[in-house]
Amino acid sequence: MIRPILFYPDKRLREPGKEVEEFDAELHQLIEDMAETMYLAPGVGLAAPQIGVSKRLFIVDVASHDDEPSDLRVFINPEIIAAEGSTTFNEGCLSFPGVREDIDRPERVTVRALDKDGKPFELEADGLLATVIQHENDHLNGELMIDHLSVLRRRMVHRAMTKRAAADAAQ
Ligand code: NI
How far is C-alpha 96 from the chain's CA centre? Predict the structure, then answer.
């Protein structure tokens, strides 16, 4: 089932997600819905808080970016345990339609998380995958791409998104 994506400045995007404790059919349905929603958008990552579900869970598929076979990865209760280097990517976010901004982040990260069945794993990532993991992990803490921008850019994006929300509400 496609879930509606929340757009900035929706306040629910600022709520930190809660730890996932049950690895049951309901969770698996949520993951399936998130994947369907992400692929339709289309996007390379989606965090549960972006569809109004306040849980520490995100999905990533950077292969969909390059028309490769899908490579869906699920991260539950993730923790970035190491980060090094620095790189800049032109990032977008499904909660900021039409916005793209250059954002600096560590180039490589090691993330520890649980899979959909609650089994722990560790992953070292670099390139686009590392950027997407950090971006999605931010969502679980109520942090958004706009927080990484200069004061000037932040104000411009805030204004554009607020205007967009007002136009949507007027429809
Ligand atoms: Ni995002």
Answer: 11
